[in-house]
Amino acid sequence: MADPASLSESGLPPCLDISKSCVLYTQWRSSSSMRVRISLEFKRLCPSVHTIDLDNIPEGYKVLNPSLSVPSFVVDGVLMTQSLAISEYLEDRWPDRGLGRLLPERADQRAAVRAVCCSVDTAGAESSDTTCSKAPSFA
Ligand SMILES: N[C@@H](CCC(=O)N[C@@H](CS)C(=O)NCC(=O)O)C(=O)O
């Protein structure tokens, strides 16, 4: 937990600029991308952020991530995919940053959190109305 003396005017710990080494590729209607954005916000980390239009994916992104999905997180040129894996990477690399831990200390409690994450992930994969490309467009 952050030392109260280190909080900014907003009451939140200050952001750490990681934009030189970390890039997030995201999409506003992507629940998986939202998961990573929440983890980054929780850790108060600010990567470089690029929005990918999933209906018109740029050629460069197709080369970067041939699965053509978001989120992608690139650290020092190394591609990471899968929102849960990216969130656990953030936890492993910056365990005590920002608002604290994403995962509890106790092994049984970590298992419980991971079980919830897996069930949300599975529910998303099995539900057709969470397919991002089928979400309504308001443009
Ligand atoms: N299990 C993956 C799911 C990634 C995924 O399916 N992302 C969706 C957006 S939520 C996507 O990019 N779909 C491609 C499309 O809609 O064209 C994760 O958690 O990152």
UniProtKB/TrEMBL annotation:
InterPro entries: Glutathione_S-Trfase_N, Thioredoxin-like_sf. GO terms for biological process: glutathione metabolic process; L-phenylalanine catabolic process. GO terms for molecular function: glutathione transferase activity; maleylacetoacetate isomerase activity. Residues 20-98 form the GST N-terminal domain. It comes from the Eukaryota. This is GST N-terminal domain-containing protein. It comes from Naematelia encephala.
